[in-house]
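Hello Y.,

Per our agreement to keep a running log of every chain we model this quarter, I'm adding this entry. I've kept the format consistent with earlier entries: sequence first, then predicted structure.
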Amino acid sequence: KKAGQLPTTELQDEGVDLHKILAFYRSRVEAHEKDRFFYEAKMEKLRVKQSEAHQIEWELKKRTEESIELQNALGSCQGALGQERGTIEEMKDGGEGLKVKQNVNKQKILELLENSNSVEQHVYYQKGENPEKIQQYYLGTKGPGIKGGTSSQAEAVKPRPAGVKSTLSY
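Predicted structure for the entry above:
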């Protein structure tokens, strides 16, 4: 007897048909092999292929980088937009300040013209005639002034209407 075999008695071995036992176990092994191939094929279908996984990971990485890049660009655009809005507000405030200053300066000019002996000069051009120059000397309300006016062809004196401070316009 070989060392790997179990000791049996002849009585035990007589009632056993070895061919039936061998056929039974062969059929069991074949059924197991069929099941194993079936389930391996099924698992292979379910298993994610390495190339597909790599492609998906690469696309995810690209999308993530694009998202970060777009968020950074959006942030910088919003910052620039905020700066431009601030600049516009400053310019609006500056424009309003300049308008106020312009009105104050107009009032000062009108006041100075009223207080000084200002001269207003008009030149009229007519076809076929020499230009006509009319000068007006306004008397200030606070200082001495000169009345009258001169013209290159004719004397014209236009008194300053009451209530009109100046004909200065911008």
